[in-house]
Every structure is written in structure tokens, then in C-alpha cells.
Amino acid sequence: MSSYAVFLGHQPHISIAELAAVLPDFSLGEVQKEVAMFETGYDLNQNFINILGGTILIAKQITTSTVSLQDIPQLLNNEMQGGKRSKVTFSFRCIGLSPRKVHDLYRASKQYLKKKGQPSRYVGNERKPALPVVLHSNDMIEGKRGCEIVIIADPETGDLWVGKTVAAQDIDSYSKRDIQKPVRDTGVGLLPPKLAQILLNFGMWAVLQGKKAPKTKKFSLPKIAIFDPFCGTGVIPMECLLREWSVQASDLVQKAVTGTEKNLEWLRKEEKIMKKDVTSEVCKHDAKKPFTLKKMPDAIVTETTLGPPLMKRPPLKDVQKMRTENDQLQVDFLKNAAATLPGVPLVCTFPAWYSSKGPEYLKRVWQEAEKLGYKAMLPIDAIPETTGRTSLLYRRPSQVVGREIVIWMSQSK
After folding, report:
1. pTM of the full predicted structure?
2. Helix (H) or strand (E) holding 406
3. CA dist 383 to 67, 106, 149, 375, 387, Å?
4. Mapping DSSP to helix (H, G, I), strand (E, B) and coil, where does residue 15 land?
5. Which residues contact 198 (CB under 8 A, 6 or more apart)?
6. Which residues of the chain have pLDDT under 70?
7. Is 150 in contact with 117 (CB distance < 8 Å)?
8. Which of 72, 74, 192, 290 has its CA 20 to 30 A from that of 307?
9. DSSP three-state, residue 362
10. How far from 142 is each of 47, 219, 255, 404, CA to CA, in Å?
11. Residue 413: predicted pLDDT
């Protein structure tokens, strides 16, 4: 088992749940605010982080020996592969060290490399580490032009965990498929590609429950088939194609169906994804009416509807009205899924309204789900964020409408 440190996204509880869902042998260790330590037998790299929506950066431990800050320049030199004729780039990402200590570390490391005859420069500083985009542009993750050393000091003992960054979020890739796609509907709640990835990873976890994971150090995605019955402009179907998962999608609104088709066609051309290799079908359909799909999906993964967009906190009576309407839609959808797609697990988001009196969640659909044979479940290390419910809350502090993520396991076949 190797030790890793992950720098988490703005929803740390969801980031940890996603890792637990994706890695069968995930063993969570200490968590410090935005950083979590864990162990796994898999060798994690850039390809692995590319499928995650909630992780910013991954570092792998490079020594299990007891080390001090004085040892860091030598450890850095050991990890460098640039060769003495070319200038290398290095950086530090530190947790639990004072800015002064980090400043001195940069200086000592540059001097050490100079004595070894290795020209160098560094990015980031004692106040702020280098951004992931800088690590990628300087070829510091998978290339031979440098590296980033991660140092985490134990808040109680002062012991140092030392690792090397092996993967970082590819921000340019997210921006391209989110901003440059031909059709974007800003009139409804936009599903971020990162959240779509998280939902799909929860869907994969649901599909693989009860199945033995292959014994291998190389992580690979299984091939599964997804159905998204509230596809909007196709964010979830697009993410499916990127991981070579076949997808069927539908929406009640023809404008959304057309938008999804255009976005999928654009993505296929941009990423050279052939239809013969990865299939996709999009049609107009009401999710409350019986599904007649060409193939039975392995999982349903969808963002249903969050209701009307809100700019400020609504009064409680308005929330109660929206909840009644939304509850009815969700109940009808679940009834339809249970009847026409029996045994298929379902990952979805429900609206969570923040009224002037506090957060309000759906109620009736939870009562009806149990009657329909659905049971809400979470990966083992996931911590529910809503009182008394097996769900995860996804919300930025300023948002009036958040998302409650639910994984429904169907108990019937």
C-alpha cells in the first residue's frame, strides 16, 4: 500500500466520498482542512485525476524515513530528472509550515542544486504554492523538467510527511469543454463538469457493489452504460464519452435535446471519439412516462430539476410551494424508473433551498422511494451532510439553491 495526500476541492466531504467510491481499497487517514491522507495499492497518476471532479492535486509519499527540513534539498535533488545541461523547475506545497520556513527552504534548495551543478528556477512562493496550471505548463508532473515536493507537518508531533506531486487538475481541459462547447443554456442551473464527474463516479460505485475488484496496481475504469433522463445540454453525456462509456440521454425540451446532440458531435470531433467505439443516443422524452430504451443501462445518473433560478433567499411559503411541486416530479420519476428500469441504481441531485428561515429539503420523495424498493447508500467513508439522511450536500456559500446528492440502490430486479 502506498501513502498519498490529496488536496481537496471546495466540498471536501464530497471529494473524500468520491475517492472512496472510485478506489476499492481506499483507506482514509488524517484529514486537515483541505488535505486528506489515504492509502491504496494502486499507482495513481495524471490519468487517474482526470476522471475525478473533487480532487485538485495528488502527491505520493517518497520516503518513509524520519526527515527534517534540512533533508528536503537532497530529496528534491533525488527526484529531479532534468540533467545538468538543462534548467529544472521546482516548487513546494507545504501544510503546517510558517512562511519564513518555506522561504528558507526555497533558498536552501536552490543553493543545494547549484552546488550539484544543476541550474534551477522555482515557481510559487512562501505565501502561495504554484497553481496546477503552472505545474502543467512547466512540465513538472509527468515530464523531466522538474517536480513539486509536498510537505505536510503533523500539527501535534511536527513530523513531516514528504511526497511528490504526481497529478493535478487540468483546468484548461475543463474550461474548454465547459465554455467552448457550442450550446450553453445560462437560463437554467448549469451543471459543472466536475460535479458531473463526481455523479458518474458514484454511479460506477453503485454498479460495482458486490463485485470483486481485480488485483492490479494499474487503475482502469470499467466499461459501463449510463442513462441520463434529464440531460439538459448534455454535460453528463459529454463526460461519459470522455471516459468511453456508452450513454443514452433524453429531455422533455426539444431545445435541450438538440443542444446535447450538437455538444456531443462537437466533443467527438475535438477528442476524436468514434461512434463505432462509444455509442450515444439522444431523444425527446418525458421522464415521468415509461422509458423504452434500446439497451438496459447499468446506472441512471442525472441532475433532475432544481426548480426556478433564484437570486436571493425566498420566503418560506415560496419554498414550500416549490418543494411540493418538485417532490411530485421526483416521485413520478422514481415510480417510472422503478417500473420500467427495475434493478438499475440511480444517482441524482435534489434541490436544497436556503430560505430566510434556513435550509429546506425535499420530503415526500424520500418516503415514496422506500415503498418503491429504493434504498439510499453512500461509500463507506462518506459523511452525510444533512441531518438524518443518507445524502451529500453540494453547495457554495453564496448559493440560494444547493444540490442534495443521493445514490439510490434498487432492491428489486
Report:
1. 0.95
2. strand 401-410
3. 34, 38, 30, 17, 11
4. helix
5. 14, 18, 52, 53, 54, 405
6. 81-84, 143, 186-189, 386-387, 412-413
7. no
8. 290
9. coil
10. 11, 17, 42, 36
11. 55
